Amino acid sequence: DVVQTPPEILVSPENPVKLTCSHNSSRFDMIQWYQKSPSSTAIKLIGYVRFNSPTIEDSFTGHFSITGDGSKESVLHFVKLSLGEDTGVYYCTAKRRRENYLFLCDDLAPWGQGATKEIRGPVVEVLPPSEAELCKKKKKDNVTLLCVAKNFYPDHVYVSWEIDNDVKREKTKDVPIEKDGNYIISSRLRVPKKDWKSGKKFTCINCKNNNNKRRILQ
């Protein structure tokens, strides 16, 4: 179980504020902290601690700090309290973070607070090169494959590509964007036209919360 305390807190700006999140699972090595403000449907990642190494997202640097050990307990400190910006609901999750040569993905434990929105994996589609692109004769004879993952929540989805089971792009720089309360991410892969016409297998991999979705074009 993941436990977050206190369940509610009401303070004035001059008072120190901190939230604690703990779990009792030996499988997890990371605790993440999220913020949801009343004016937005988005749940934003504040930062996380993996074992005893904390990381704060750039947009929250100087505003929050995180201490503790991701394998058991973490504390979210409000360094600079602002009633307007900091009013909202805060969540924590505990997870195991795994990294390998291909992609990054996570095992997600239940939210520390009752989440107000369902966590959903992406719907993935891979589109082949257009007929117009295939018919063009260019100096650089490349074509474009497009991978689209949509309708997922929250925004922690990463994309990688394989060609015939070999890594082409390990983890793309593409980032999700919010659309109608959910998220969408797209990634393009440029390949030689001869590779496309040779019948090679092109795989788009989307990784979210230990739910790796693969879509293949051949």
TrEMBL record:
Keyword vocabulary terms for this entry: Immunoglobulin domain
Gene3D superfamilies in the record: Immunoglobulins
Residue span(s) of domain Ig-like: 1-103, 122-204
CDD domains: IgV
Keyword DNA repair tagged: no
SUPFAM superfamilies linked to this entry: Immunoglobulin
Organism from which the protein derives: Denticeps clupeoides
The name this protein goes by in its record: Ig-like domain-containing protein
Domain of life where this protein originates: Eukaryota
Keyword Magnesium: no
